[in-house]
Amino acid sequence: MRRTTIIQRTGGTAASSIVVQDPAIALRRFRSIPRSTARKIAWVGDSTTLSLFTMSVGGFPFILGNGVTEWSYKKLSKPGMPFYNIAHGNFGSSGQTALNFINNNVPGANLSDIVAYAPDLIVFSYGINDVRLGLTSKDQLKTYITQAINNIRSSIPNADIILRMPNYNLL
After folding, report:
1. Residues with Cβ < 8 Å from 73, sequence gap 6 or more?
2. Torsion 119-125-127-130 (CA) sign
3. Helix, strand or coil for residue 44?
4. pTM of the model
5. What are the start-end ranges of the H helices in 23-159?
6. How many helices (H) and strands (E) are present in the chain, helices listed first?
7. Cα–Cα distances in Å, from 117 out to 34, 39, 69, 88?
8. 3-state SS class at 18
9. pLDDT bracket for residue 71 (50, 70, 90)
């Protein structure tokens, strides 16, 4: 099992803490996987995750900035380059909430789908719809995200997990 860090807001309790890893540690570990080995990233979340893939070439370049072109992405994906042998699984679904994810109510992006993909790294981003729809308080959202991360952790114990905006600032 991967080493974890507990991120806790002031006044929170251990039960409401989110168990995640320092993103730098997770990324270093992912980068330490030999490039000759196929590496997988699962992008899990709502439309903010889905948009990463629809607004860019192959998903990942949008993270680096709009200046990354299809040509440069293909060049960076060649043997010996940073994106070589990395597969990106898009488990983003528009309009979905953290509660839907916990209840396995996200067609094509449920926990079982992510487990079947067997990622080395998971970038998790739920929360914007929970708050936008006004159906979830910050405390409830923290509980839902904590439960989702713990469910992922117990099902895929060797995968590193990174929380991506917008959810962190909502907590």
Report:
1. 57, 58, 60, 61, 83
2. negative
3. strand
4. 0.74
5. 23-32, 47-54, 61-64, 70-76, 98-102, 111-117, 128-132, 138-155
6. 9, 6
7. 19, 11, 27, 10
8. strand
9. low
For the purposes of burial, counting CB atoms within 10 Å of the CB of 110, is it exposed (0-12), middle (13-18) or buried (19 or more)? middle
The tokens of 21 are what? Answer: 């890893």
Pairing of strands 39-45, 160-163: unpaired
Q: What is the pLDDT of residue 52?
A: 59
d(CA 125, CA 45): 5
Report how far apart, in Å, the C-alpha atoms of 127 and of each of 37, 66, 96 are.
33, 24, 9
Residues 72 and 74: their CA atoms lie apart, in Å, by 5
Phi, psi of 50 (to 5 degrees): -55, -40
77/28 Cα distance (integer angstroms)? 18
